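Researcher: Re-running this chain for the archive, since the previous output was lost when a drive failed. Same request as before.
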Amino acid sequence: MVAKDEGWARVPTGTRASTYANPEFQKAAVFAATERATIDSANALDSTLPKSQYTGVQFATIPEIQSIGVTVGQQMSAALGGKETVDAALKASQVAADREMRKAGDYEQSVDCQPCMTAQRC
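Model: Regenerated structure tokens:
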């Protein structure tokens, strides 16, 4: 649907193997082969340099992730530094994420709905 309405260059990457296999996508996204190889080679059990105890990989395909990540990181830093309680930092992070997602039109929140990050309509 995105390809038909907005062109192959606007198709979200990193979500479907079939997208990377499509010749039209490959023409529009010159980075496709490199990106696919990188995704395929990601090792969730050994994904950090230098090596750490953390595991997992993250790939978020929404433009809002940078803003949300910065805000959440600042809130967690404030909580760890004792400037804010953990509960207050989590609540502020959720409010900020909810605001960014609604601003982008990714979901709407009804009056009775509690903020969530599921991108589903309540």
